[in-house]
């Protein structure tokens, strides 16, 4: 709903409608809330109006007095519901209600009219709640015309009591909202129609909003005037405060913002002016009965607001207010207010917390130097909300211009055009010449040829010596105009001074020129062109002088008209060093567009403002200034016990701490500076064990932090501890210590982080995860014994967003500078240091992200989708994720040491399996964002194309786009570009974890990959040397992935492994030396071998075909009761396994293989096999193997469990079968009687997850093997569970397949049947068949059997 005008007698012009209805008219409606008598009013319905017509000013109001306006209103121009028009007129007659009147009715159009006296057509009707705009617009628009009023009373003829009670409930619900109304309203049933309705209101605690409480009293007054008996039970303090607020005025309210119902000052007109002055020893207390408006600056030792007392900051733009105190505490109904959500504070307000850590005593639960909100406390601070942060829309170059500051001077004296060409990369003059275009015509042609030979991008300086125009041809003038965008050269005259500096091939903005009018008396004048450039080798000493004028205009993405001159902004780094973030003040800029601002100073570094090589690298630009400032007053340097060994500056700032059972906390449009302390629990904003702070906890509206600028602070930004349902929106955390946006314990849930920005997040000392290397090594009080922390694994994890529980919402946030990129699967150690684990409590630890529905481990696993992640210019990883069921989609990784690594959920055989996938993403090695030196950028060198650029690590570091660790992982529909190795480093699109002792799955696969021509090395398996070490760990040796479609190798359905792994070779393999890899075809699996007693052996496994090239494996679990080895092997081959010592007593094996284990002669064996179900962690179908008389017997009887021990060679031989159950269901027609256990395994030829050749349907312990291509039907009686029919259909003849299946289903499948369907190897089908008959069995649509597909189904 839109309120029309602010004066009571101001309204919008009626708007004509295509469909008109005559409005009904009434006498004056309800009693006025502000005056005893009403003006004549009109209530109409109108179509929505434009925003420009939303207020009434000047002549617009007077037009409503005219007869034409009145007549047009009578004709019924349609309007939105609840929109009112108030017209000046005569006084209304006194209200006289007759509860027993016979005109009562429940029709919604007439209900309100019939509550009022009978009226004539000449009178109009108004909404008495119109001018109180703190209600939601939707509630106002439906307040008096709601379909809820159409309901009839259930029994009998409705009487006045029922109608009034119905109206009262409706009015209170719309006024207060359903949640609040239902909690405080109690209605008594009407015993007789003539009885007056009775309403009881139980106000258990003060309202969060002064405005809403005042409004409630006005609504109750209306009801009382209608004859409703109202009883209000409210706290004593609330009654005392409200009485002076409810004095009615006899004149209409003036349209003054200070009297608007949405502003604290307006609705609390009873507030007593307060000017307490300055006294640093005064402990001020605002208690019961105190309602104060602070009108001037004040200083206290402490300020306590309690017992329902309130302090409201006066909003006078001409008088800024500063409140100084060592501590401010709000509790027991005490409230501190500045503005409101709908009426932001307009003036300049500063809350300054002062004091040193060595002064005074701590306040229990808060410490020192704080603004605290305790039980029952109210904190409502609402400043202006400008655009919080946006993005650069055009690149900002060092010095403000593309080639930065460059200074070199020369005075030109030779006649003609003096030209210098400068290489902006080296600052060297690469070409220089003079062209006498005054005297010689041929010089014009020579000038054009000279400039045409120069490379684009070079800087050009041109200056006139004496004169250059007489013989300068028109062709040459036009050439210069097009080449260097000169606007002067076309009209250059005789002896006219002219100077130009520009970029060959640049845009018009890259050209600066100056010209003076020639003097008729022949005197000399000077023209100077100034501009800035940057060089890589320092400032040269010959050439010309180039500068830029003060004030650089930034082009931004969003409308920033809310940013004002004098405000301060920060531009984020777009390079490896977060310290390249730069701050600027804003200057007046009348020439700027809505998305532009002008900054002072000169940028030192390159800040990208464009999408580079397909990855959005635009720098974030944040506003640091707000009109409400909360700050800590700081000392000049560090002192006392504030970790001065790590920090030279004072870190004892202010803090805001919110405790459990607060009444209301909402903060918006606030700047926090010099806040936080290097003390556990003392942060800029800290919600401490507050529980549910949204509707679930009874907070309406929910608690929020909106549009905060937290900068130059000393311990985090926003700490959420034991708190759920908090909204943190449009908030900036800049230049802070320790984790910025921080979920503390990991049990915090339902919190929302929406469009926040964290940048320049530095190391702090509080937690191990906050610390840098120096702090980690020095702070050892928490370790056990003499343990020395390892910084890279124990500490060094400071993050802009530390999200310790997945059941929280992160929406459009940006982390623009911290320790590393996105890490999923990092946790902390939750046990105290001990001899068994001497590391400190809460040091970094590995974890696994296992997403479940609703983040509830008791519910099913569901995929977590990371959509739209952009990670660039990270020294180490762009992103790392460990867990299962994680999908990265539409992501961009560029200029990272390693773009992305995915690690599996667990360790075979006890993991739940995993599904890690990357799709529709882009990986870039070395983009056109070459970066800038300085700002703690350490690594600088030549790029793949010879250009100088910043580098993620040492210039020899092997950059990788997608790194394979263990798996299985899937990479599909993604693009790689600009991975080009150099003489210094191996940069590859796909690589592997270096020095990897872990297993790697052959189910790692890639498909639909686009390798652009700029990719010089697609895959690299490493080589001995720097970074790779000996390249001889288990994971290094068994590295492998499956190229499903040949998009990487050019050969579909091939496996790519390391060249020296003879376990995977097959005839016709292809070696690619540059990759140190081999391309093979075949079927591969991961063999799992577990050995016990002893558990520290080295295993040697050799394939029979290459028995002289065994693979030597150390195992992955050193120091545990068992050892496991997981080589990748080709299936259906023979292998020999040996150990470098005594053979282990227990060995566990898996997968389809012919295995020979070496044991001493005379060894007695017990061989047991089972099927292990990973998700449940259970083994079933445990069976013993029996001894066979020969190895051939083992091979001939694969369906039996046999082993053979060759006593002559000491080899124990057996065949292994690895099963993957594709479907398990239990179906019964009467669940209480019997279940049938059903397993279905369908097989496709190219199924990368299952290499079994057997498809089957299993009913309890009976197996129906399926050895032929096609579809198998099995029909069971649903009552008895017996098999009634079995039929196989060949899919290679699609013309007969569909008709055969249709005929079978129609004739053989009876009512109350269970139908099981399984497929096998339909990849050889010559076409696709569609069968509509499956819809009769319960399929949602006709089933299509495709090539390379499989299918299974069970229906009843």
Polypeptide structure, described:
With 1356 residues, this protein is mainly beta. Helix content is 10%, strand content 30%. The strands form 19 sheets. The chain has a 17-stranded parallel beta sheet that branches. Strand 79 (1186-1187), helix 15 (1191-1196) and strand 80 form a beta-alpha-beta unit. Helix 5 (160-176) runs antiparallel to helix 7 and helix 10 packs parallel to helix 11 (474-484). The longest helix is centred in the N-terminal third of the chain and has 17 residues, at 160-176. It is globular and about 105 Å long.
Helices, strands, pairings?
Elements lengths: L40 E3 L15 H4 L4 H9 L8 E3 L24 H5 L21 H5 L18 H17 L1 H7 E4 L9 E5 L7 H16 L3 E5 L2 H7 L21 H4 L4 E3 L8 E4 L4 E4 L3 E2 L2 E4 L4 E4 L7 E5 L1 E4 L4 E4 L10 E5 L16 E4 L4 E5 L6 E3 L14 E2 L8 E8 L4 E8 L6 H11 L6 E7 L8 H11 L13 E6 L8 E4 L29 E2 L5 E4 L12 E4 L10 E6 L8 E4 L11 E2 L2 E2 L3 E4 L4 E5 L22 E4 L5 E10 L11 E8 L11 E8 L6 E7 L2 E3 L2 E6 L3 E3 L8 E3 L2 E6 L10 H6 L12 H4 L6 E2 L6 E3 L2 E2 L6 E3 L1 E3 L15 E3 L17 E4 L2 E3 L4 E6 L3 E4 L2 E3 L3 E6 L12 E4 L2 E3 L15 E3 L5 E3 L9 E5 L4 E9 L10 E5 L12 E7 L22 H4 L2 E4 L10 E5 L11 E3 ...
Parallel strand pairs: 4-5, 6-8, 7-10, 8-11, 9-12, 10-13, 11-14, 12-15, 13-16, 14-17, 15-33, 16-34, 17-35, 33-35, 34-36, 35-37, 36-38, 37-39, 37-40, 38-41, 39-42, 40-43, 41-44, 42-45, 43-46, 47-52, 50-53, 51-54, 52-55, 53-56, 54-57, 55-60, 56-61, 57-61, 60-62, 61-63, 63-64, 74-76, 79-80
Antiparallel strand pairs: 1-2, 3-4, 18-32, 19-25, 20-21, 20-22, 22-23, 23-24, 26-29, 27-28, 27-32, 28-29, 30-31, 48-49, 58-59, 64-65, 65-67, 66-67, 68-73, 69-72, 69-75, 70-71, 70-74, 76-81, 77-78, 80-81, 82-83, 83-84, 84-85, 86-87, 86-88, 88-91, 89-90
């Amino acid at each position: 709903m839109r309120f029309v005008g602010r004066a009571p007698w101001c309204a919008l012009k009626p708007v004509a409608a295509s469909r008109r209805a005559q409005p009904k008219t009434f006498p004056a409606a309800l009693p006025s809330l502000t005056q005893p008598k009403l003006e004549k009013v009109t209530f109409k319905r109108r179509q929505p109006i434009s925003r420009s017509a939303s207020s009434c000013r000047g002549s617009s109001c007077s037009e409503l007095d005219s007869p034409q306006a009145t007549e047009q209103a009578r004709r019924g121009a349609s309007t939105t519901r609840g929109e009112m028009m108030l017209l000046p007129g005569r006084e209304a007659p006194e209200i006289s209600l007759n509860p027993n009147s016979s005109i009562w009715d429940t029709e919604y159009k007439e209900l309100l009219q019939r509550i009022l006296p009978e009226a004539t057509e000449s009178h109009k009707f108004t909404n008495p709640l119109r001018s109180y705009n703190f209600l939601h617009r939707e509630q106002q628009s439906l307040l008096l015309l709601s379909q809820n009023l159409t309901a009839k009373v259930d029994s009998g003829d409705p009487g006045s009591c029922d109608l009034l009670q119905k109206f009262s409930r409706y009015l209170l619900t719309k006024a207060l909202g359903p949640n609040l109304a239902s909690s405080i309203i109690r209605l008594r049933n009407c015993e007789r129609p003539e009885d007056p309705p009775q309403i009881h209101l139980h106000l258990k605690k003060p309202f969060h909003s002064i405005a809403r409480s005042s409004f409630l009293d006005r609504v109750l007054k209306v009801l009382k005037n209608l004859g409703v008996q109202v009883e209000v039970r409210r706290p004593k303090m609330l009654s005392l405060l409200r009485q002076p607020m409810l004095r009615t005025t006899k004149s209409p309210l003036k349209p003054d913002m200070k009297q608007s119902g949405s502003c604290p000052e307006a609705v609390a007109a009873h507030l007593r002016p307060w000017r307490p002055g300055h006294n640093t020893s005064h402990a001020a207390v605002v208690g019961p009965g105190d309602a104060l408006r602070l009108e001037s600056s004040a200083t206290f030792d402490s300020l306590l607001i309690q017992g329902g007392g309130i302090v409201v900051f006066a909003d006078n733009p001409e008088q800024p207010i500063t409140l100084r105190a060592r501590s401010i505490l709000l509790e027991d109904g005490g409230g501190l207010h500045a503005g409101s959500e709908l009426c932001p504070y307009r003036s300049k307000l500063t809350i300054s917390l002062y004091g040193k850590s060595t002064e005074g005593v701590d306040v229990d639960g808060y410490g020192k130097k704080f603004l605290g909100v305790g039980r029952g406390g109210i904190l409502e601070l609402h400043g202006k909300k400008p655009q919080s942060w946006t993005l650069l829309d055009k690149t900002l170059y060092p010095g403000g211009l593309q080639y930065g500051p460059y200074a070199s001077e020369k005075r030109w004296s030779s006649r003609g055009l003096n030209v210098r060409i400068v290489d902006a990369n080296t600052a060297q003059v690469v070409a220089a010449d003079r062209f006498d275009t005054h005297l010689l015509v041929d010089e014009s042609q020579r000038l054009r040829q000279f400039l045409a030979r120069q490379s684009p991008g070079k800087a050009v300086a041109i200056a006139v010596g004496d004169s250059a125009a007489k013989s300068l041809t028109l062709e040459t003038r036009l050439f210069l105009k097009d080449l260097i965008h000169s606007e002067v050269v076309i009209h250059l005259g005789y002896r006219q001074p002219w100077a130009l500096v520009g970029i060959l091939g640049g845009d018009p903005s890259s050209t600066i020129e100056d010209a003076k009018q020639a003097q008729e008396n022949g005197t000399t004048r000077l023209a100077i062109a100034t501009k800035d450039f940057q060089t890589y080798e320092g400032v040269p000493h010959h050439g010309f002088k180039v500068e830029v004028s003060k004030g650089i205009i930034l082009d931004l993405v969003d409308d920033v008209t809310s940013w004002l001159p004098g405000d301060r902004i920060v531009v984020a780094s777009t390079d490896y060093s977060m310290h390249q973030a730069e701050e600027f003040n804003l200057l007046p800029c009348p020439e700027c567009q809505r998305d532009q601002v002008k900054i002072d100073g000169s940028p030192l570094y390159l800040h990208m403002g464009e999408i580079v090589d397909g990855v959005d690298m635009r720098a974030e630009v944040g506003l640091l200034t707000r009109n409400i400032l909360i700050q800590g007053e700081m000392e000049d340097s560090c002192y006392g016990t504030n970790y001065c060994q790590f920090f030279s500056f004072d870190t004892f700032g202010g803090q805001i701490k919110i405790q459990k059972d607060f009444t209301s906390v909402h903060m918006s449009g606030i700047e926090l500076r010099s806040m936080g302390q290097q003390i556990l629990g003392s942060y800029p904003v800290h919600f401490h064990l507050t529980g549910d702070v949204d509707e679930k906890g009874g907070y309406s509206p929910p608690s929020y932090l909106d549009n905060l600028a937290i900068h130059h602070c000393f311990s985090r930004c926003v700490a959420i501890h034991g708190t759920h349902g908090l909204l943190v929106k449009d908030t900036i955390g800049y230049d802070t210590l320790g984790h910025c946006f921080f979920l503390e314990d990991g049990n915090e849930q339902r919190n929302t982080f929406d469009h926040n920005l964290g940048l320049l997040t530095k190391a702090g000392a509080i937690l191990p995860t906050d610390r840098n290397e120096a702090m980690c090594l020095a702070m050892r009080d928490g370790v056990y014994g003499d343990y020395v922390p390892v910084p890279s694994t124990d500490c060094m994890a400071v993050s802009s967003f530390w999200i310790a529980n997945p059941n929280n919402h992160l929406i459009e946030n940006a982390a623009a500078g911290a320790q590393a990129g996105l890490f999923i699967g990092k946790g902390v150690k939750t046990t105290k240091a001990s001899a068994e684990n001497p590391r400190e409590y809460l040091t970094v630890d590995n974890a696994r992200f296992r997403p479940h529905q609703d983040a509830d481990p008791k519910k099913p696993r569901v995929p977590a989708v990371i959509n739209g992640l952009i990670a660039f210019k990270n020294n180490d990883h762009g992103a790392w994720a460990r867990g299962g069921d994680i999908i990265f989609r539409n992501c961009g990784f560029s200029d990272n040491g390693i773009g992305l690594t995915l690690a599996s959920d667990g360790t075979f055989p006890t993991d739940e399996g995993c599904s890690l996938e990357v799709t529709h993403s882009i990986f870039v090695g070395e983009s056109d964002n070459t970066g800038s030196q300085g700002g703690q950028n350490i690594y600088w060198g030549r790029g793949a194309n010879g250009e100088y650029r910043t580098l993620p690590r040492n210039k020899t570091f092997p950059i990788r786009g997608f790194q394979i660790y263990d798996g299985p992982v899937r990479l599909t529909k993604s693009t790689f570009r600009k991975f080009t190795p150099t003489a210094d480093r191996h940069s590859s699109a796909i690589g592997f974890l270096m020095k990897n002792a872990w297993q790697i799955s052959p189910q790692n696969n890639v498909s639909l990959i686009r390798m652009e021509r700029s990719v010089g090395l697609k895959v690299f398996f490493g080589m001995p040397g720097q970074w790779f070490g000996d390249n001889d760990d288990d994971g290094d040796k068994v590295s492998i992935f499956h190229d499903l479609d040949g998009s990487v190798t050019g050969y579909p359905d091939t496996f790519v492994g390391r060249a020296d792994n003879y376990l995977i070779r097959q005839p016709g393999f292809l070696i690619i030396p540059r990759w140190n890899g081999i391309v093979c075809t075949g079927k591969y699996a991961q063999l799992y071998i577990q050995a016990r007693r002893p558990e520290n052996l080295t295993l040697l496994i050799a394939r029979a075909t290459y028995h002289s090239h065994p693979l030597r494996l150390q195992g992955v679990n050193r120091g545990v009761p068992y050892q496991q080895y997981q080589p990748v092997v080709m299936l259906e081959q023979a292998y020999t396994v040996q150990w470098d010592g005594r053979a282990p007593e227990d060995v566990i094996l898996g997968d389809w293989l012919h295995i020979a284990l070496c044991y001493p002669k005379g060894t007695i064996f017990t061989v047991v096999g089972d099927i292990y179900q990973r998700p449940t962690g259970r083994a079933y179908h445990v069976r013993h193997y029996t001894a066979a008389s020969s190895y051939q017997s083992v091979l001939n009887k694969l369906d039996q469990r046999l082993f053979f021990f060759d006593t002559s060679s000491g080899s124990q031989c057996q065949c292994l079968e690895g099963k993957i159950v594709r479907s398990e269901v239990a179906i019964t027609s009467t669940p209480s009687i019997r279940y049938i256990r059903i397993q279905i395994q369908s097989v496709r030829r190219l199924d990368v997850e299952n290499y079994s050749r057997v498809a089957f349907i299993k009913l309890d312990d009976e197996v129906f093997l399926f050895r032929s291509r096609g579809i198998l039907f099995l029909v069971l009686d649903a009552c008895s569970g017996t098999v009634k029919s079995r039929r196989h259909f060949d899919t290679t003849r699609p013309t007969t397949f569909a008709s055969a299946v249709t005929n079978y289903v129609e004739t053989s499948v009876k009512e109350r049947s269970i139908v099981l369907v399984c497929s096998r190897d339909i990849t050889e089908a010559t076409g696709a068949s569609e069968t509509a008959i499956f819809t009769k069995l319960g399929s949602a649509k006709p089933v299509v059997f495709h090539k390379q597909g499989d299918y299974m189904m069970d229906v009843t």
